[in-house]
Every structure is written in structure tokens, then in C-alpha cells.
Specification:
- With about 375 residues, the chain is of the alpha/beta class.
- About 40% of the residues lie in helices and about 20% in strands.
- Helix 1 packs parallel to helix 9 (about 345-360), helix 3 (about 125-160) packs antiparallel against helix 8 and helix 4 (about 165-180) crosses helix 6.
- The strands form four sheets. The chain has a six-stranded mixed beta sheet with strand order 1-5-6-7-4-8. Strands 9-13-14-15-12-16 form a six-stranded mixed beta sheet, sandwiched between helices. A two-stranded antiparallel ribbon has the order 2-3.
- It contains nine helices and 16 strands.
């Protein structure tokens, strides 16, 4: 069997609207997906359990999707095994998951059964203080992202006035005519993933995932954030109309209104935005420049205001990332209390049970 391809994504976003969860994308139960939901506090071994499951199942799987945590990039929030419609995820806040079809489609593995409650009760005041401190830091981080979103929205409003949107749409139709197959009449399918995120380590982009999804990548260089999302939105609609499968990657700051990246794995083709907030180091097949759609004289007349807004937004994002890093430090201290309260033997036994159960769901002739 060929080496397993690991794709790294986020399914949560620290956004201008607060934390946004797309854990609805862990697999459609009506399409035969089965989800294992992990419950338990910080430091109870949820990420460790998922890594153990991934290591055990990966040899059977051509592709494994790792879902990373935006508050702790080195930790996992979930793992998907698409070939067998299996997924496992952390079901605790802020991306709380509860079974919709208990037993039939979702199963709970409860790591709280492995902790010694009396140990945590003994240290309850410190535990509560650390949890409250983490919440306060995340709330403050969201405030800075709200400010960044407001600043960038003003830039986008000015840039939209200078953008020839019909010219963008014409380019999208031209690309589709050249790159996309004729419609087969079937509906396209779409997966939503965050390829980038504002994290405890600052803004992060999983460029290795982009290269794994597409050998041909076209960059859309857009310093103002208007032409690229419009072009990608148009390409998305055209690709779905052609019956293609898409990986659509929303902007983590504006997760409901903007697309930052778009991939068509069947064509090994991707489109990615690039600007000061989205630096990309890979070598593209082509770079599309937003200035070709833009009234540059109008932009120049607002140059100083736009430059100020962009610098201020960048500073707000950096401040938010710093607070997320502080929250991670407090979370690490909190984890120590839970680690000390865990029954390691019981934890390891539960990990083996979960891994064995999922391995047993893979057909033996595969």
C-alpha cells in the first residue's frame, strides 16, 4: 500500500465574530459516516488518544485528515479517515459535540471515567481560577479580532468601489472554460476546511496541505481582499455546476463571507489568496494580480488611509495571537492538575478500546 497522505486543517476559527466551529464537517451521517466523540477535561489525553488511533488506522488509509486546534496548534481536535467514513473528535467546548443519532452514527468515549474526582475537587479553587483566566484571555483575543475585522472591512469597502466586478467574473468564466470539464449533470460536492488560522503561534497556513491537494496552484495576489474572494466564489459556483468535488477554505477572520483558498483535487488544481496577511512561499503555476481589476487612481487617492488601516489591523491580529499564546500558557498550567488526577492505566485501556473498535470497522479484506 502506498504511503498515507496526511492533510492538516483546522475546523475551528478565531474570527471577528468570536470562535466559529465547523465541526459539522466531520462527516455526514446520511452518507454512512460514523463519529467517535471524546469527552473529558484538559490534560485528560484526548489529543494523545487521537494520535494513537491515527497511528493504528493510518496503514489502512490512503488519506488521513488531521484537524488541529487553533488555541494549541500542536494538539489535535479531530482525525478523519475518509476512505472508511470514520472520524474521531474532541467534543468539549468551544466546539461542543453531542450525538444526534446516538449509537447509530455517533459513539461517546468518556475520558472523565479515568480521572480521580477527589484530586480535582481538592484543587478546585485553582482549577476554577485557571479556567476563568483562560476564558478571559480568549474573550480579549476575540475583541482584538473584532477590531481587526472592522478595520479590514473599511479597506474592503473602499477597494470594492475601485473594483470592476464584472471583469473578475469574466476571468472566472474564462478559467472555468479552460480548466473545468463539461457538466455531467451531477451535483458537485463540497468539503469546508480552514487551511489557515489565527493561533497561539500567530497566523498559520498549512502550505504542505495545499501542495498535497494540488500540484498546480494559481495565486491571486490581492492586497485589499476584494477581488480574490470574488474570483474564488465565482469559481466555486462554476465548479459545483460542473459536478466537481471541492475543498473550500473560508477566511478564518470572516468565515461566513469570504473564501481564501479553493481546491479541486480531481483536477489537482488550487487557487490561493496571497497578501501581507497570507504569505505563500510555494512556486505557483500562475499569479493573478488584483490590480488588473482595479481603478488604481482611486486606490492611490486613498493610499494613506488604506495603509494605516492595514497596519492597524495587522497589529490587532498580532495582539490577539499574543493573548492566545497567554491563554495556552494558562491552559498548560490547568492541564497539570488533570494530568495528576488521571488513572493512566485506565486511560491507556480506554485508548486501546477506542482504537480497536475503529480498526474493527475497517473491512478486513481492505
Amino acid at each position: 500500500m502506498p504511503e498515507t497522505k496526511i492533510l492538516r486543517f483546522f475546523l475551528g476559527a478565531n474570527s471577528a465574530q468570536g470562535f466559529v466551529s465547523r465541526f459539522d464537517q466531520l462527516g455526514d451521517p446520511r452518507d454512512g459516516w460514523r463519529l467517535t466523540i471524546l469527552k473529558g477535561g484538559p490534560g485528560t489525553g484526548k489529543s494523545t488518544l487521537m494520535r494513537a488511533v491515527s497511528a493504528q488506522l493510518a496503514p489502512y488509509c490512503p488519506v488521513v485528515e488531521e484537524i488541529h486546534c487553533t488555541s494549541d496548534v500542536d494538539s489535535l481536535d479531530g482525525v478523519l479517515f475518509p476512505a472508511y467514513r470514520l472520524s474521531i473528535a474532541d467534543g468539549t467546548a468551544p466546539h461542543t459535540l453531542d450525538p444526534k443519532y446516538p449509537g447509530a452514527c455517533e459513539t461517546i468515549a468518556n475520558l472523565s471515567s479515568c480521572w480521580k474526582e477527589e484530586v480535582l475537587f481538592e484543587h478546585r479553587e485553582k482549577v476554577m481560577a485557571l479556567i476563568d483566566r483562560c476564558s478571559d484571555l480568549h474573550r480579549s483575543a476575540s475583541g482584538y479580532l473584532y477590531a481587526a475585522g472592522s478595520l479590514l472591512t473599511e479597506v474592503q469597502l473602499m477597494a470594492r468601489e475601485a473594483t470592476d466586478e464584472q471583469k473578475v467574473r469574466r476571468l472566472a468564466r474564462s478559467i472555468a472554460a479552460r480548466e473545468f470539464p463539461k457538466s455531467t449533470g451531477k451535483a458537485g460536492r463540497e468539503r469546508i476546511r480552514f487551511l489557515s488560522g489565527i493561533t497561539d503561534k500567530g497566523p498559520m497556513l498549512f502550505e504542505d496541505t495545499a501542495q498535497a491537494l494540488a500540484s498546480r496552484i494559481q495565486l491571486v495576489e490581492d492586497p485589499w481582499g476584494v477581488s480574490a474572494p470574488l474570483l474564488l466564489s465565482e469559481l466555486r459556483q462554476l465548479a459545483l455546476g460542473c459536478g466537481l468535488e471541492l475543498v473550500t477554505c473560508p477566511c478564518p477572520l470572516f468565515p461566513f463571507g469570504r473564501i481564501d483558498h479553493l481546491f479541486l483535487p480531481e483536477l489537482s488544481l488550487g487557487f490561493m489568496i496571497v497578501n501581507r496577511f497570507h504569505p505563500v512561499s510555494l512556486t505557483p503555476e500562475r499569479t493573478i494580480h488584483a490590480r488588473r481589476f482595479t481603478d488604481l487612481e482611486l486606490i492611490r487617492s486613498r493610499k494613506r488611509r488604506i495603509a494605516f488601516l492595514l497596519r492597524a489591523a495587522e497589529n490587532m491580529i498580532q495582539q490577539s495571537a499574543g493573548l492566545l499564546a497567554n491563554a495556552k500558557e494558562e491552559h498548560d498550567r490547568l492541564e497539570q492538575y488533570y494530568i495528576a488526577a488521571m488513572d493512566r492505566q485506565a486511560q491507556q485501556e480506554l485508548t486501546k478500546q477506542v482504537a480497536s473498535r475503529l480498526e474493527g470497522l475497517i473491512p478486513q479484506n481492505e
